[in-house]
Amino acid sequence: MCGIVGYIGPKPVVPVIIEGLRRLEYRGYDSAGIAVAGGGRGLELRRAPGKLRNLEAVLAERPLHGSFGIGHTRWATHGRPTEENAHPHRDCTHSLVVVHNGIVENYIALKKELMGKGHTFVTETDTEIIAHLIEQELKELPELPLEEAVREAVKRLHGAFAIGVMSANEPDKLVAARMGPPAVLGIGDGEYFLASDVPGILHHTRNIHFLADGELAVLTADGVTLSDFKGAPLPLKVQRIAWDPIQAEKSGYKHFMLKEINEQPRAVRDTALGRIAFDTGQVFFNDLSLTEEQIRSASQITIAACGTSWHAGLAGKFMIERLARLPVDVDYASEFRYRDPIADPTAIGLLITQSGETADTLAAQAEMIAKGSPTLAITNVVGSAVTRLAAGTITTNAGPEIGVASTKAFTAQLTALFLLALHLAQTRGTITAAESLRLATELSRLPAKLEGMLSLNRADTTGMSEGVAAPTATAVAAEPKLPPEWAGTERRYRPRLSLDEQCQHIARLFHAAHDFSLPRPGHPLSHRA
Amino acid sequence: MKHGPNALIDESLPVVCIATKDPDDPASVLKYEKTLSNIQEVTARAGRVIAIATEGDDEISSLVEHTLYIPRAPELLLPILEVVPLQLLAYHIAVRRGCDVDQPRNLAKSVTVE
Fold first, then answer.
1. Do B71 and A449 touch (CB under 8 A)?
2. For residue A490, which residues of chain B lie inside 8 Å, CB to CB?
3. DSSP result, A211-253
4. Residues ≥6 apart with Cβ < 8 Å to A132
5. Is the per-residue pLDDT at A471 higher than 50?
6. Residues in contact with A128: Cβ distance below 8 Å, sequence separation at least 6, in sequence order
7. Spatial distance between the Cα atoms of A366 and A376, rounded to a whole number of angstroms
8. Predicted TM-score of the model (pTM)
9. What is the Cα–Cα distance from A186 to A193, expressed in whole angstroms?
């Protein structure tokens, strides 16, 4: 979940990109960066940790000018949210830059290979290897156009990516490619745009091509050409987007909650991505930092969390106990430290907090550490407070969640807990190789199952990208069109109605039949204080 | 249910039951059968049951008012699928009741104070 904006055209580049990034800031805001070229000074870069306004402050001090550029707001997955790890990332020659949304699964193997060929890496990110891969292609075949070098490079990548690439050596050209995360192209009047999502460019053009998986686009001052990863040309399918900017931020959904419910296939997929060897079912984490001996000799796991995360913990208890045969306690973090809990170095503390900043959960972590327990954190925010004291962190990669009632962050937490349970079981030898493989395979099938459950009337949406499909969801959500007589005949209708439509229908029952008694004026609350 | 909630049941109370199963897992099937007994207790008292059930379970739909089906999966992975119809139900009930779905009153996204 990062935000990308690229621009080629007559307007001043920097304001177009910064304004676009501002409208995409909901996608991530750990750090931001921009690269601009065509101003006669080669390729210039500005980056800053934290929110976009920090980047703007840097630009105010050291302005940039040029005719084309790309920018990025980051939601950290690999590497902490520092200036060094902020995109764009460069190759060794500093003449080409890459912005990336997604996760390169095989980046460690590629990094080793490239280091063997003399490349020097300066960041902890998976993205940097893409820049060096492209540089390597150009080193071997200097006459290769940038897009062909990108085409060769993306063939080497496993995982998920939407990338934007530019080079000081090929003026007024942007190359984009997608496999997984969303990307859109904007077709303006003598100007062309690349973005992660429609809101980033909607104020400049409503003519949008939704980049599909396996598509590679070349944007120049003269237009956009599209092809697949093998080089076969593809036609542009430009659609006119009628959303207002607020709708666009919600991808056309009526509420963030509904949008985020529909983002769960990706949240689950991205959380599992790169952590399972699919031939063996072996689970591995980059940042777990517990020794095998610590896992084998553990006496118990104590989960402390609040709210939705606490509920995820309850499910996690079942997963860990059944697979790893290790007793699990689940505590409400706000109560944990007040009962002089039993904890020692053989008890592993597990904190679950989507923000990584939940005060009570941090206090529970401090209590665990004071009693000598190593702690693990499951969080959606890389570099958050809980990760700083934890011996290990499992990030959930759900992307920013705006709706206060948690949906996709919760299913991502369940996914992380399942992976942890499997990992503990494998290390402790409490699971057979066959069962490991079976469960890992079943986990990898969940995103498709979730997609199936969430899919709307397929006839309306086949072949359309996720963003375009969304207005249908809004229309359905706003105006249920189910026949009143449907109640008695659900079996006849069921196969043709989506889960969403069925839930809308049932929601009527709750609305009409029962008045829920949540706190309101005059409603007494009982509380054990 | 017998420890209290049964007292609430009448024809105006919708009851959501998670009645899924992994047919390959005997422990899961046993739990499913117990859940079916609970459902019978509710319907015997005129309660209106909405069941979350596993695809292929045609039997359950004859016992309850509505059935929402989810795909088959191993028991330990079922929560990731089961929660989706519950989220959609919560969402649509909230919309119908005119609630602020994205920002429920009195709540914050991250509770960074004690």
1. yes
2. 61, 66-67
3. PPTTEEEEEETTEEEEEETT--EE----EE----HHHHHTTT-
4. A91, A92, A114, A119, A121
5. no
6. A89, A90, A98, A121, A122
7. 12
8. 0.75
9. 5
The amino acid that residue A479 corresponds to is: E
Task: Decide which of A527 and A266 is more confident.
Answer: A266
* Cis upstream peptide for B23 (omega within 30°): no
B112 and A358 in contact by Cβ < 8 A? yes
Q: How far is B81 from chain A (nearest CA, A)?
A: 7
Write the residue in B12, B81, B97 that is nearest to A513 by C-beta. Answer: B12
Encode burial over A286-306: b for 16+ CB neighbours within 10 A, e otherwise: eebebeeebbeebebbbbbbb
pLDDT confidence band for A42 (50 / 70 / 90): confident
Please work out, in degrees rounded to the nearest 5, the angle formed at the alpha carbon of residue A332 by the alpha carbons of A326 and A337: 90
- The set of residues, in sequence order, having a beta carbon less than 8 Å from that of A306 and lying 6+ positions away, is A332, A333, A334, A353, A358, A360, A361, B111
Q: How confident is the model at residue A496 (pLDDT cuts 50, 70, 90)?
A: low
pLDDT at A357: 86
- Give A322's contacts in chain B (Cβ within 8 Å): 76
User: In residues, how long is chain B?
Assistant: 114
- Give the distance, in angstroms, between the CA of residue A459 and the centroid of all CA atoms in the same chain: 28
Chain B residues whose CB is inside 8 A of the A482 CB are none
A528: which DSSP letter?
-
pLDDT in tens, A251-289: 888 999 999 999 999 999 999 998 999 899 999 998 888
Token pair belonging to B71: 């795909």
